[in-house]
Structures are given as structure tokens and as C-alpha cells.
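Extended Data, record DUF1640-domain-containing protein
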Amino acid sequence: MLLPRSPAYRSLLNQSRTRYYQHHLTSQRRCFNDKPFPSPFPNRPIAQDKKQTLHPSQPLDIPVTIAPVQSPPPPPPQPSHKPLATSHSDLESNATPADSQSFILAPPPAVYSEPTLPESDTYAFMIRKHHFDTYRLLRALENQGFSRQQAEVVMKGIKFKLRESTAQLRNELLLRSDLENESYLFKAELSELRTEIQIMRRNDTQMLQTEASIITREVDALGQRLREDVAVMKNDVTLDMNNRKNETQEEQKAIDMKIQEINNKFTIQLGEVRTELEAVRWETIWKGMAGIAVAGFTIGTVGYLLTRFADHQAETARVEKLKRKKLLKEEARQSGAADMEVIY
């Protein structure tokens, strides 16, 4: 769909303008090529198999052979009170049919024949017009001393130069009628383009609506299918979870049974260990008591033996002490007796 300000719309509009301008220039150049301008040089021949195209930047150089028109002598000039023409419109308004048809280019048929254009062709109709009063200029040149052929050559040269200048202007500029015609065609094409764009937009809108409805139906179908798939997946997941839960419960029961068996084994082994510990403890206690008893007996025996030894030592010491006392007494007795003997 082409929007009014989109690049595609602008490119299409430029293409339509270029196409109309090319058609206009082609028709204009074809008109000038079909009716070439006469040359002011009567002795230069023209080849029948060559045609020159009009270009705005090149001067017109279309050689033709011009022959004077065999017509009756013109009537004497009538006094006219009209003002002198100063513009192209004044020249055209001052020119009369008799004056414009007094001298016409009539080349020999074997060398050049001027083609006739339809009356509907605007540019051909303008080309056939004269830009000034040719008869008056011809009479003025004759009055100045020019011969009839020289006056005709000068008049035709001026007419050719004017046609060349106006042809260049006509190539560069555009007539108001052509502008209105082109404007009308452009507006018609623009309205047609607008209608086509509206139709295309309407068709595109309908197509987009159809595609949107199709996409909506597809989305609804996909949503329904997705919900069904989600429900099936949920059921599958629930079933798998239940199966897994049952398997887990069975595995848990098996693990609990194994743990119970291990606990029973541990309890039995612990009882056996406790019994063995009690037996070892009682055995250790009995062995300890026996050791203590043996140790006590040994200690008592040793004490008794030591007591007897101590008593024996004490007795021996007392006996020796008594012996020493007796010896001391005897020595004291003997010393006293000796002293007495000395005294006495």
C-alpha cells in the first residue's frame, strides 16, 4: 500500500511527470522536425534523405532552396493609420491574411516539399504564422533601393532568424495552453493515481483484515492445541509423579526394613558386647580382689617380718646398752677405787 508521503509514492509521481514531459518535448520536437525552417540562402541545396533535429543549444541550419512565388503584382500600398507593431502579438494582430499569404516559400517539388500538418497541432499552427508584416517589409526594402529578389532574401532571412529565436524560446519555455493542458493531465493522472492508491489501500486493508482474521483463527487453533498439549503433558507429569512417588515409597519402605534389620543386628551385637563386658568386668573384679588379697597378705607378712626384725634390733640394742652401763659402772667403780687408793 502506497502512502501519500512515502518514497514509493513520490517516485511514482516523478515517473509520471517525467513521462508527460518527455511526451511533450517529443511531440514539440517532432513538430519542428516535420516542418523545417527555410534558409535565407537560395543557392544551397538540401538532401532529401537527411533530417535535422531541433536542439535548443544548436542553431537551426536547415538548407533549402527557395524560389520566388509566381504571383500577380501586388496592389499599391494603402495608407494605414495603425501604429507600428512593437511586439510579437502586435505583429500578429497587424498582419492580414492577404499580407501573410503574399509571399510563401515555394521550393521546387524535386528538391524540397514542405509537409502539411493537421490544423489541431498547436505548434504547427504557430509555425505557419508570420512574426511580422512581410509585405510591408518587402515594400520598404524595395523603396530603399533593393531589388525584389534581394528584398525577399533579406525578409526571409529575418523571418528565419525570428523563427529560430522563437523556436529556441519555445523549446525552453512552455505555453499557457500547454501548461493548462499538462496541469489538467497531471491532475487527472493524480486523481487517477489517488483513486488507484485508495483502491490499493482498500484492497490492502481488506487483505490485511483477511490475513489478520486468518492469523487470529490460526492463533486460536494454536492456543487450543497448546492447551490440549499442556493438559496432556500435565496428566503425563501427574502420572509420572504418582509413579515416582509410589516407587519412592517402596524404596523408602525397603530402606526402613534394611535399617530395622541393621538396628536388630546392632542390638544383638550390643547385647553380646555388654554380656562380654560384664563377664570381663566380673573377671577383672575377681582378679583384682585376688590380687588385693595377695598383696595384703604379702604386705602383712612383710610387716610382721619387719616388726620382728625391729623388735629384735631393739632387744639387741637394749642388751648392748645394758652391757655398756654395766661396763661403765665397773669402770666407774674401778676408777673410784683407784682414786680412793690415791687419796689414801
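Summary. The CA atoms of residues 307 and 313 lie 10 Å apart.
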